[in-house]
Specification:
The chain has about 1000 residues and is an alpha/beta fold. The protein binds iron/sulfur cluster. Iron/sulfur cluster binds near residues 87, 90, 92 and 255.
Length: about 1000
């Protein structure tokens, strides 16, 4: 739909601002020629309207020696070496430029990298605050080993060698005795695309555990059951209508790269609608605000779907070609003719009850606003973009149906793979294949993916304490990496009980740049790098394009540019801070010093290879037949190989895995690795393919046949197309037949979009196989006496989980999380802003001050999840600007946390720590939440049914009380909702092979053991 005509004064403020800026002479800081392109053609900003405001970015030709204008009163400005890297403070991976002072060698600031295709020179507040993290006086600088009881806070500084040898010895022993079944790597935020998974697969273990189930499992499940791809990637910039579930514009996933594209769309006249029960900044700026009661979003979306169907505003051809409607008719309506016309008639009936009036009644949103939403979707057609990730999905039992119902709107309007429409992330993300990948593990880690949750996305990470408590296994080496489950997960006291029980967790190794609540209960605390201190590649789905970014230790690049020698990253980072990739390579060598375990070969290169030079023999082809990448005679000595370096690894990736990069580098007489070190990012394409429409090449159609719409051939199959089994005669699926053409289709069992999920049907959930509305666990019908829904999972723009708490600039802006409560509810409770409230959950209670505001529905309350950091030691063990000192008392299963004092000024290397003026750092609400695993997706459903009380006289803000026996009972109650693989697996496997999973075990590992043969690990 074309943007509506507007008079100039009618245009949105953002558009008028852009107009004004366009007409204004621009100030050039640089004297290096053209404003947007350097003399050698390097653009310093991106074409199109977004280039406005990027004038101050130094041109890349001068990054080796950039001189700032002189400050008032000084003769000359500072001179800098500018080195690109990627921000690590959220998943967006925006580009940063480190400003390294030529004179002092100190990183003075970090600003946006204008050559980064995702962020285009812009950052949110958390990007520049990386500098705070580098200079944080409370950061970890040296390896520490526990010297007292676990959690007692007694530490001894040790060498890296000592830590490596001890950890490697434990892993080696477990590999030799138990195939490594007691080794677990538990990651919070990966911030990288594949390096660590390759390490785990090289060790041969199914040891990956993630944070996904406390974050995005519901959204992933909803998208994947439709399409086989579990993440949305909208083309906001090209959209006419944008629908956001939650405060995505200000705080959501990829919000800086997304926000700038949404702003551009609005400047063109696009409309924005926002579901949010709070009046967030995003909601306040929307054209249509939909403050639906939490968990009712799907009801509203289905009313929109009904409108599209009834009014004929749906793309009949798209639906006919791309939905698996035949499978639905065959299975559910066998009495009907298998024609599209018959399905069309059924479709009208299926959503008959989802009227606007029903949606309004269910959600509490005025009917006319839902009608307006429906008309906006209908008018936008294929230029309709949306985003749903955590919020509505992560909050609610059945929240995965929110994504499924949202996707229904795209599947009805055909706004998939279109300009301004919905794009699945695998079309807009580029992950290069690593060198010499190892095969998947041959066994299945049931502590991560228990058989009760065969459809979970992915590991049931937050249930680990309960699974350990039930005796389902033990862990001998437990890595936590950028992960703080004691604080981030629900039910943190159960985590404390597990982590302090050495019979359950043998050796806990915390890989972290900074102290956190979980690291305090570790055996080793190993200092890892921040964004400017480590290597990673990352590609994110931030728009209709593909790019790859390179995070690097900026001082290492500075040393290289200035000709200074170094051994590894420890020589260039503060203290003995290491980067993880070098750590993993070194650890792998120590686990397998003689190569006899078959691990070391994945971290070797020929001895005569210059560092960073690419070697085809280490590529994927070399490992295909199981042969080592290089000829190594392990008996005859080690002279033929040397240890792989990060330059070897990334040199290979950039030489072989990024289309167009070698050519771009060659034009500048650089190697691809040198190009990425210099510019930090590369745009692979601005015209990604809508892959489902790709024609299957004739060469792949050898001896083709079509069965149930799937095209099979004898060409070996495809990694992207239908996920059907091969035919008995050996033909493999290569695509789908659409009106007589062989197209690639979707990575689903049918090769089509699965409106009707045969997977849900076959694995025990036939009643939810279609997109439908499920009542949340906090639906008003399900609340107990006096209960009200608590929203505990909203973000603020300047904080993010554990990672940002050591950024003083951010801490000063936002440091506490009061209870959002509507004036009507506050009056009923008899509290005003600042009064303390005791919030009772099903396993305990916590105390926090009220914030009375009309910016929230009267029938819910809310509390942001960023705050309530704590430590036990007054002198350290946490960021002192952002944590309170607490006391912990335990009596059997009863835990009590009492706050001794909040943040206060202290003396340190940073004079600003004397200026801390705030004391309230919020309450750790998550620790008082029971677990709520969705029985299908496995998502922890964050919303809580709580009872509000006025605080008692002895209560202090931040006080917490929890009973972990109650927590375990609640876990068992939710576990009983599952329909496990035993009794529901249609084919004797643990999980549908086609569903995504972080590691890829062998077919043998997928075989479901006999019932009762629960864990063989500890025999
Ligand atoms: S959005 Fe902000 S925190 Fe996230 S990567 Fe970009 S600059 Fe960093």
């Amino acid at each position: 739909m074309p943007a509506p005509n507007r008079s100039r004064s009618d245009r949105p403020l953002g558009a008028r601002l852009l107009d004004a800026l366009r007409g204004r002479p621009r100030r050039l800081v640089s004297d290096a020629g053209p404003r947007y392109a350097s003399p050698d053609g390097h653009r310093t900003s991106f074409p199109g309207p977004s280039e406005i405001g990027l004038d101050s970015h130094p041109p890349s030709t001068r990054w080796d020696d950039w001189q700032e204008p002189a400050a008032p009163g000084t003769a000359t400005g500072r001179r800098y070496d500018l080195v690109p890297t990627l921000c690590f403070n959220c998943e967006s991976a925006c580009g940063l430029l480190a400003y390294i002072d030529h004179d002092s060698g100190v990183i003075r600031k970090l600003e946006g990298n204008p050559l980064h295709p995702g962020s285009r020179g812009r950052n949110c507040a958390k990007g520049p605050a990386t500098r705070n993290q580098i200079t944080d006086p409370d950061r970890l600088l040296y390896p520490l080993k526990r010297s007292g009881a676990r959690g007692a806070g007694e530490w001894t500084r040790v060498s890296w060698d000592e830590a490596l040898d001890d950890i490697a010895g434990r892993i080696r022993k477990d590999l030799l005795q138990h195939e490594g079944r007691h080794v677990v790597y538990h990651v919070g935020r990966p911030g990288e695309d594949g390096f660590t998974s390759r390490v785990l697969q090289a060790w041969g273990i199914d040891g990956h555990n993630s944070h996904t189930n406390i974050c995005s499992s519901n959204a992933r499940a909803g998208y994947a059951f439709w399409s086989g791809i579990d993440r949305p990637s909208p083309d906001f910039a090209g959209a006419d209508f944008i629908l956001l579930l939650s405060a995505h514009l200000e705080t959501g996933h990829y919000f800086n790269p997304h926000a700038q594209r949404i702003v551009e769309a609005r400047a063109r006249g696009a409309k924005v609608a926002v579901f949010d029960p709070r009046l967030s900044n995003t909601a306040s700026g929307a054209d249509v605000w939909l403050p639906s009661y939490p968990g009712t979003e799907a009801a509203v979306l289905l009313a929109v779907a009904r409108h599209l169907i009834v009014s004929g505003a749906w793309d009949r051809t798209f639906v006919r070609r791309w939905w698996n409607w035949e499978a639905y008719l065959r299975a559910e309506r066998p009495e009907l003719e298998p024609t599209f016309e018959a399905f069309e008639s059924v479709l009208h009936d299926l959503y008959r009850d989802y009227t606007f009036a029903f949606a309004a009644e269910e959600s509490g949103v005025p009917q006319e606003r839902i009608e307006e939403l429906a008309h906006l979707v209908a008018r936008a057609g294929t230029r309709f973009a949306s985003y749903n990730w955590r919020s509505a999905g992560a909050g609610n039992e059945g929240g995965w149906q929110v994504a499924r119902c949202l996707m229904l709107l795209h599947a009805l309007t055909g706004s998939i793979g279109t300009p301004g429409g919905f794009w699945p992330n695998s079309w807009t993300k580029h992950v290069p294949a690593p060198p010499n990948p190892a095969p998947g593990p041959s066994w299945w880690q049931e502590l991560h993916m228990p058989r009760e949750y065969p459809l979970a996305f992915f590991e049931m990470s937050y249930l680990l304490p309960h699974l350990l408590r039930e005796g389902r296994g033990t862990i001998d080496v437990y890595f936590t990496r950028v992960y703080n489950p004691v604080w981030t997960n629900p039910d943190g006291f159960s985590w404390l009980e597990a982590l302090t029980d050495e019979s359950k967790v043998g050796c806990h190794v915390a890989l972290t740049p900074t102290w956190n609540e979980t690291a305090w209960y570790a055996d080793y605390v190993l200092p890892m790098g921040h964004a400017s201190e480590r290597h990673d590649v990352q590609s994110q789905e931030t728009g209709r394009a593909q790019w790859i970014g390179f995070r690097q230790p900026v001082m290492r690049a500075h040393y290289e540019r200035t000709g200074r020698a170094f051994r590894d990253t420890r020589d260039v980072n503060p203290g003995e801070v290491w980067e993880e990739n070098e750590f993993w390579i070194e650890l792998s060598w120590r686990i397998d010093p003689d190569g006899s375990l078959g691990i070391r070969r994945y971290f070797e290169v020929p001895a005569d290879t210059p560092d960073g030079a690419s070697r085809p023999e280490t590529g994927p082809d070399a490992a295909a037949d199981g042969a080592p990448p290089v000829a190594v005679d392990h008996q005859a000595g080690r002279s033929t190989v040397r240890k792989m370096t990060v330059d070897d690894y990334y040199g290979y990736l950039f030489d072989h895995g990024v289309p167009g990069l070698p050519e771009a580098a060659a034009r500048e007489e650089l190697t691809p690795l040198a190009y990425m070190r210099r510019y930090g990012a590369f745009e692979v394409t601005t015209e990604p393919s809508a892959r489902y429409l790709e024609e299957v090449p004739e060469a792949e159609l050898v001896d083709r046949v079509v069965r149930d719409g799937i095209v099979y051939a004898r060409s070996g199959g495809t990694s992207y197309g239908p996920k059907a089994d091969s035919l008995p005669d050996g033909r493999s699926p290569v695509g789908v037949d659409v009106d007589g053409r062989a197209l690639r289709g979707w990575p689903t069992p049918s090769g089509k979009l699965e409106f009707y999920s045969t997977t849900l049907r076959d694995w025990g959930w036939p009643e939810v196989a279609l997109p439908t509305y499920l009542k949340s666990h906090i639906h008003k019908d399900r609340l107990g006496p006096g209960e009200i829904a608590l929203l505990p999972n909203f973000r603020l723009p300047v904080q993010i989980h554990t990672r940002s708490a050591n950024s003083k600039w951010l801490d000063e802006i936002a440091h506490t999380n009061p209870l959002w409560i509507h004036p009507r509810r506050a009056a009923e409770l008899g509290v005003q802003t600042g009064d303390l409230v005791r919030v009772r959950t099903h396993i305990g209670w916590f105390v926090l001050p009220a914030w009375v505001t009309e910016g929230i529905r009267p029938d819910i309350v809310a509390c942001s999840h960023h705050f309530g950091r704590w430590r036990l030691d007054d002198a350290g063990g946490g960021n002192r600007a952002m944590s309170s000192v607490v006391g912990l008392e335990r009596d059997g299963s009863t835990w009590r946390m009492t706050r001794k004092h909040g943040a206060r000024p202290f003396a340190s290397s940073d004079p600003d720590t004397r200026r801390i003026w705030w004391s309230d750092v919020g309450v750790h609400q998550n620790i008082a939440f029971e677990v709520h695993p969705d029985p299908i997706s496995g998502q922890h459903c964050w919303h809580q049914a709580v009872v509000l009380e006025r605080a008692q006289p002895s209560d202090r803000s931040g006080d917490i009380h929890v009973d972990t026996d109650l927590a375990h009972e609640t876990y068992r109650t939710w576990l009983a909702k599952t329909r496990g693989a035993h009794g529901h697996s249609p084919d004797g496997t643990r999980r549908p092979r086609w569903l995504p999973r972080p590691l890829h075990p062998t077919a043998e590992a997928y075989e479901l053991p006999m019932e009762g043969d629960r864990v063989a690990v500890d025999d």
